[in-house]
């Protein structure tokens, strides 16, 4: 089978423009420029995906088209079209078809279906996809014992991947349920619940950074490449059927970033004494620095985000005692100016290290995920999906596939660090304060400094009393009487 050439060999260093001009020849509805496919009708692109006895599509094309085609056609409809073209072109539906022809085509079709099931397994959660897959593979498997075995192996691999995904979703639900239970316990009986802090579990910032990297790589590993397209883009407006997709694994990863940010802010604000708050801040600065050294930029940014939250940043007396040299370096690295130039430079360095690395430790690259999503979003917004002649703008999708394929490489790295269950359990399930609770704790540590803060403090205290489970109308009357 043809090997996949690097995307850099097919794509230029810059993005593509909305305008499109070419004088190159057209081949069966496909337009090429410098021998690279740049556009085509949807029907021609689907035809280009389907193998024949003499032809097999390049693997780079397979990935790019399967990734981007969902902007124009549902995966189950694409699978149906692929099956139809395969069956009709090769006359596989004909009972009198020469079995030699079936045997010649079978390895190519099995290869295509294997590419699809391995790279985009979540497409096959749809029963219509599975139905079309079974219909085609049953016909292919009739040709030869070898291909029957290959079809069985492909099907078993797909079922394993779907089972693992289901188990992951169940595990996430249990983690979220445990976190919710602990938060409820703190709210109902705050005087009884003993709320530990992370430093009491582990005071080594390097170990904590390693455990955060475990969580990052695990959650990254379950994000399918198609989710970058489905989560942010609706079906093409020229099609009658429009769908908004929702993806649990991508959402779970975004929620993890938010949780880590609020956990950092909570750990700081819950400390009653200034000396302890200083210690916690400096601890998380060290954790963030270790995340940077590992290549875990997402946890790094989440920690910085937590320390930059208003309830934390307003603690001026606390921050005046913090050794700021390390923190200033980290903020400089993640400075958003010039489109995060410093971060992008560091990411490029980590990527180069990963390419030449001999160990998984050096291969770790965990991007700042929100910025990755933003880049893909603006790539989609900045380039049209269809050209004026109705062709699909495949130039754009080569660039999209290039970005997503890089992510695919990063997420496959196995975490080399030993797991610490106590740290993981705490980080994933410990109660975290809401923004209002963070402000109340912050004002308790360092009182309101101006009228605006005083007004907010009074409002939050009153709201907290109203929301307490033991609060009653009689309590409100007593408060009103006292006032």
UniProtKB/TrEMBL annotation:
Keywords: Guanine-nucleotide releasing factor. The keyword Coiled coil does not apply. GO terms for cellular component: plasma membrane. GO terms for biological process: Ras protein signal transduction. The keyword GTP-binding does not apply. Residues 33-163 form the N-terminal Ras-GEF domain. InterPro entries: Ras-like_GEF, Ras-like_Gua-exchang_fac_N, Ras_G-nucl-exch_fac_CS, Ras_GEF_dom_sf, RASGEF_cat_dom, RASGEF_cat_dom_sf. This is RasGEF domain family member 1B. It comes from Sphaeramia orbicularis (orbiculate cardinalfish).
